[in-house]
UniProtKB/TrEMBL annotation:
Source domain of life: Bacteria
Keywords noted in UniProt: Hydrolase, Signal
Domain AB hydrolase-1: 36-248
InterPro entries named in the record: AB_hydrolase_1, AB_hydrolase_fold, Sec-Metab_Biosynth_Hydrolase
Molecular function terms, GO-annotated: hydrolase activity
Protein name according to UniProt: Alpha/beta hydrolase
Length: 256
């Protein structure tokens, strides 16, 4: 009888141990999304993410930076999906400015667990970017120029520092201007097919000193989508001037 009891006790302990281990692993999986995919906006390229990349990688995150061709919404979504395909598990998808429109469409990828909008556009299904940009008067510092004869929109060099990167040094702002991509303006008029934020958790960072997408527009979009809002004092490139604060929002999203 003692032998039977000991065998039963050993079996019970084993079952409880396995159950605890399984629950612990599941909890860790749910709370430790380690892949982050960063999507830049118009009038920029992926180099602006360097500070944020360094912070997140030091904390153990696997960070991928998408280089958008900026030739169309479809092309930028394709580039983002290629990056998502390579992830080894769930990922947090982050978009800045025009990149917000891109992640709204690309966020339907099955590996995307949550979306983080950084001073970004956030249209709904059937909406485009330009209609949101027209919901409030532009700031005087805004320097987005009309498309040229090739359909490409650039940012006015004379206004780039104040209008795009006001809290960076002039030297850093000049580098950003020199490295901006050629953005085909037809992307602003392309509607979203299916807004991923309607089915996935979303976080919205409002740059309170933004002169390119005024804060009132950001707030209206994020409130409409029920995104968790964080306000950070910074320019349109708040992810460069305040990378630690932006990283905190991404880390919060990764724990959901």
């Amino acid at each position: 009888m003692k032998t039977i009891f000991k065998s039963f006790l050993t079996f019970a302990v084993l079952i409880l141990s396995l159950a605890f281990t399984s629950a612990n692993v599941n909890a860790q999986t749910a709370s430790q999304i380690k892949n982050v995919v960063l999507v830049h906006g118009a009038f920029a390229d992926g180099s602006g993410w360097k500070g944020l990349y360094q912070i997140l990688t030091k904390k153990g995150y696997n960070v991928t930076i998408v280089q958008n061709p900026l030739s169309s919404l479809e092309d930028d979504v394709k580039a983002t999906n290629l990056a998502l395909d390579k992830q080894d598990g769930p990922a947090i998808l982050v978009g800045h400015s025009w990149g917000g429109t891109v992640i709204t469409e690309a966020g339907n990828h099955p590996k995307v667990a949550a979306l983080v909008y950084v001073a970004a556009l956030q249209p709904d299904s059937g909406e485009n970017s330009i209609q949101w940009l027209q919901t409030a008067p532009p700031a005087p510092e805004n320097g987005v120029l009309p498309p040229d004869d090739k359909g490409i929109a650039y940012y006015d060099k004379a206004k780039f520092h104040a209008g795009f990167a006001g809290d960076l040094s002039k030297e850093d702002a000049d580098f950003m201007f020199a490295s901006q991509g050629a953005f085909y303006a037809n992307g602003f008029g392309t509607p979203i097919t299916k807004a991923a934020w309607r089915t996935k958790p979303s976080y919205g960072i409002i740059a309170t000193e933004d002169k390119s997408i005024v804060p009132s527009i950001q707030h209206a979009m994020y409130k409409r989508s029920n995104s968790k809002i964080t306000e950070i004092k910074g320019s349109h490139v708040v992810f460069i001037s305040q990378p630690a604060k932006v990283a905190n929002v991404i880390i919060e999203a990764s724990k959901k």
